[in-house]
Write a structure and sequence with these properties.
two-stranded antiparallel sheet, Dynein heavy chain tail domain-containing protein, single chain, Dynein_heavy_tail, 72% helix
Length: 147
C-alpha cells in the first residue's frame, strides 16, 4: 500500500473514531437524561425493562469499541485516551445501573416469598366461600419472572 492510501485510510479511521466519540457523548447524555424513567419496550415490567434498556445502550457501544481495539485504530488517533476513558465511564455507569435494578428485583423476590408464606386462600366457614388473597407486588413479580 502506498503512502497516499495509508493517509487516506488513516483519515477514514480518524473520522470513525470521531463519530464513535460523538456517539459516546450522545449516549452518555441519553443515559443521564433517561435513567430515572427510561424508554422501556412495550409491556415490559419495571425491573426487566430498565435492565434491558441499559443493556441496549451497552450493546451499541461494545461492538465498535471491540472493533477499534482488534484493528489497533486507537493507536493512530490523538484523542484515543479520551474516547477510551469516556467508554469506560459509561460502561461502569451502565453496569452499576443494571446491578442496582437487579439488586432491587432480588429484594422484591425476598419480600414476595415472605408474602407467599402467608395463607393465600382462606375459606369462610359460614357461606363456604373461598377467598384468594394475593398482593399486587406478587403479581408484578410473576410478570417479571416471565421475562
Amino acid at each position: 500500500i502506498c503512502d497516499t492510501d495509508k493517509d487516506f485510510l488513516n483519515q477514514k479511521y480518524i473520522w470513525l473514531v470521531d463519530s464513535f466519540r460523538y456517539e459516546l457523548y450522545h449516549l452518555t447524555e441519553l443515559f443521564e437524561q433517561q435513567k430515572k424513567n427510561p424508554q422501556r419496550s412495550r409491556n415490559a415490567p419495571l425491573y426487566f425493562g430498565n435492565i434491558e434498556w441499559a443493556a441496549g445502550i451497552q450493546r451499541r457501544i461494545d461492538e465498535p469499541q471491540r472493533w477499534f481495539q482488534q484493528n489497533g485504530i486507537f493507536q493512530i488517533h490523538d484523542d484515543a485516551n479520551r474516547v477510551i476513558s469516556t467508554y469506560n465511564t459509561l460502561t461502569k455507569a451502565l453496569s452499576d445501573y443494571k446491578s442496582f435494578w437487579l439488586k432491587n428485583w432480588n429484594q422484591s423476590i425476598v419480600r414476595a416469598r415472605i408474602d407467599a408464606s402467608c395463607s393465600v386462600a382462606t375459606c369462610d366457614s359460614v357461606p363456604a366461600n373461598l377467598q384468594v388473597h394475593m398482593q399486587a407486588r406478587t403479581l408484578k413479580l410473576i410478570k417479571e419472572a416471565k421475562h
